[in-house]
Design brief:
This protein is an alpha+beta fold and 416 residues long. It contains 15 helices and 14 strands. Strand 1 and strand 2 form a beta hairpin. The longest helix is centred in the first third of the chain and has 18 residues. This is Nitrogen permease regulator 2-like protein.
Length: 416
C-alpha cells in the first residue's frame, strides 16, 4: 500500500500505531545554530523540514523544562526530550541537544515518550562523563541504527557504552480512558494498585496525591484536591481551575492509571454485591489490602469477619445509611467510606443509581437557572441522566431534587 493511500486512510487520533521512521540527534551549534548531527536512515528529515521546525526541536534555554515534546508538522510526528547542560567547558557555557524519534503523522506515539526521556537522560550521563554527544562520537551513527532496528523489530533495546548500560522497552499503549463527567469522583490508586493506606491509622487521614515535579502546573494544582470524595465540579471550584481543564487533566491521570472513577459517595446511595465478591473470601492478598485501607487498626480476624458481613449486607433496597446504623456499634474500627470505595475499585460492589424519567404529555420546560423549578428540570429527566449528574448540571442539592421528583406524579424513577 502506498504512503499516499495510507495517509488518506489514517489520520491523527485514529489510534493506529506506526513504526519509527527515523531517529535523529540535533544540537545547537554555537556558530551554525540548530542542526542535525546525525540521523538514521539518512535524509529522512530534510534540511528544509528541520529548518521549519527547529525552534521547537531546539527551543530557547528558558523553555527547556525536562519534559517530552511532540510536534506534528509537514507529514512528520516528532517526539523529543530537549536537554540543556550548563558548564563552562562549552563555548556558550551551555550545551543544548535533543534526540528525537520520527513517526508517521497519524501514528500514536505516547508509548515512545518514556523511551525518549530515558534515552535523553542516558545521553546526559554519557556527555557529562566523556563528552559523548558534543564531541561527535563516531559511535553515534551505529547507536542510532541499533536503536532503530531493535525498537522497531523487538520493541526493546539495550545500549552499552563503556561501563554504562541502559535497557529500553516500548510499552503497550493503553486504551483511551472514558469521558470524565462533572459528577465523577477520581480516586487515587497509583497505577491501578490498591489505594495506599494512610501514613498513620487515624480517621482524619484521607488518600490523596502529592504534587510532583514531573506533573504539569495545572495537574499539580489539582492533586491536593483529589482525595476520593470530591467530584469533578467541586475539584474545579476548590482549585479555581476551569472545569474543562480539570476534566482533561483527570482523563490524563486515568490514562496513566493514577486515578480511577467512582460515583459520588452518599449515605443515601444503594449498593449491591457483584459476583466478584466471592473472590474477596478466597484471596488473602485482596483481604490484606482491604483491611490495610479500611480497617488498619482492627484485629485481622475480627475485621475480616465484619468487613465480609458488611459487604454482603449491601443490597438493593437498603441504603448505605441503614447498613452504617446497623454496624456502627458492631464494627467501630471499619471506615465504611473507605470500604465502599475499595470495594467499588475492585468490582466487589456497584452503585445502583436513580434515573428520573419524565412521562408527562406536555413538552419539557425551558432550562432555568440554578435551583430551577420542576418545569425547568424536566428537560433533564430523560432517563439517561442519573441524579448526581442532574444535580451538577442544575447546581441543585440532592434533597431538593428528590423532593421535586417525589412531588411530580409524571416523573418515574428508574434504578440501574
Amino acid at each position: 500500500m502506498s504512503s499516499k493511500s495510507i495517509e488518506t486512510r489514517y489520520y491523527e487520533g485514529c489510534g493506529r500505531i506506526g513504526p519509527i521512521r527515523c531517529i535523529f540527534l540535533s544540537e545547537f551549534h554555537p556558530v551554525a545554530g540548530p542542526k542535525i548531527v546525525c540521523q538514521f536512515p539518512e535524509d529522512n528529515v530534510s534540511k528544509d523540514v528541520f529548518h521549519s521546525i527547529s525552534a521547537y526541536i531546539i527551543p530557547k534555554p528558558q523553555f527547556i523544562l525536562k519534559c517530552t515534546m511532540t510536534i506534528n508538522s509537514l507529514g512528520h510526528k516528532i517526539i523529543g526530550y530537549p536537554i540543556r547542560i550548563e558548564n563552562t567547558r562549552y563555548e556558550r557555557n551551555m550545551y543544548i541537544f535533543n534526540l528525537c524519534f520520527v513517526c508517521d503523522s497519524w501514528s500514536k506515539t505516547v508509548q515512545y515518550e518514556p523511551v525518549v526521556k530515558k534515552l535523553g537522560e542516558y545521553l546526559v550521563l554519557m556527555e557529562e562523563e566523556t563528552g559523548f554527544v558534543s564531541k561527535g562520537s563516531s559511535r553515534l551513527p551505529t547507536l542510532l541504527a541499533h536503536l532503530f532496528h531493535d525498537l522497531n523489530t523487538y520493541h526493546r533495546a539495550t545500549l552499552a557504552e563503556g561501563d554504562t548500560a541502559v535497557r529500553l522497552l516500548v510499552g503497550r499503549p493503553r486504551a483511551s480512558p472514558p469521558p470524565v463527567h462533572d459528577h465523577d469522583v477520581p480516586v487515587p490508586v497509583l497505577r491501578a494498585a490498591p489505594p495506599s493506606p494512610p501514613p498513620t491509622p487515624t480517621s482524619s487521614d484521607e488518600p490523596h496525591l502529592e504534587p510532583d515535579a514531573d506533573w504539569d502546573l495545572t495537574t499539580a494544582q489539582l492533586l491536593p484536591h483529589i482525595d476520593g470524595y470530591n467530584h469533578v465540579s467541586k475539584i474545579a471550584a476548590d482549585a479555581d481551575v476551569e472545569k474543562t481543564l480539570v476534566k482533561s487533566c483527570i482523563r490524563n491521570l486515568l490514562y496513566y492509571g493514577v486515578v480511577r472513577l467512582v460515583p459520588v459517595l452518599k449515605f443515601s446511595n444503594t449498593y449491591r454485591a457483584t459476583p466478584a465478591l466471592s473472590r474477596f473470601f478466597r484471596d488473602p492478598e485482596l483481604q490484606a489490602a482491604c483491611l490495610a485501607y479500611a480497617a488498619p487498626t482492627a484485629p485481622r480476624q475480627t475485621a475480616l469477619r465484619d468487613v465480609g458481613r458488611m459487604l454482603c449486607s449491601l443490597q438493593q433496597g437498603s441504603p448505605l445509611r441503614g447498613v452504617c446504623e446497623r454496624w456502627a456499634g458492631l464494627a467501630p474500627d471499619v471506615d465504611v467510606r473507605r470500604l465502599v470505595i475499595f470495594a467499588q475499585l475492585h468490582g466487589l460492589i456497584r452503585c445502583i443509581k436513580r434515573y428520573p424519567l419524565w412521562r408527562g404529555s406536555e413538552g419539557p420546560g425551558a432550562p432555568g437557572g440554578p435551583g430551577g423549578t420542576a418545569a425547568d428540570l424536566r428537560r433533564l429527566f430523560t432517563g439517561a441522566l442519573c441524579e448526581d449528574e442532574i444535580c451538577c448540571r442544575a447546581r441543585l442539592d440532592l434533597p431538593s431534587l428528590r423532593r421535586i421528583v417525589d412531588e411530580d406524579p409524571d416523573v418515574a424513577v428508574v434504578w440501574r
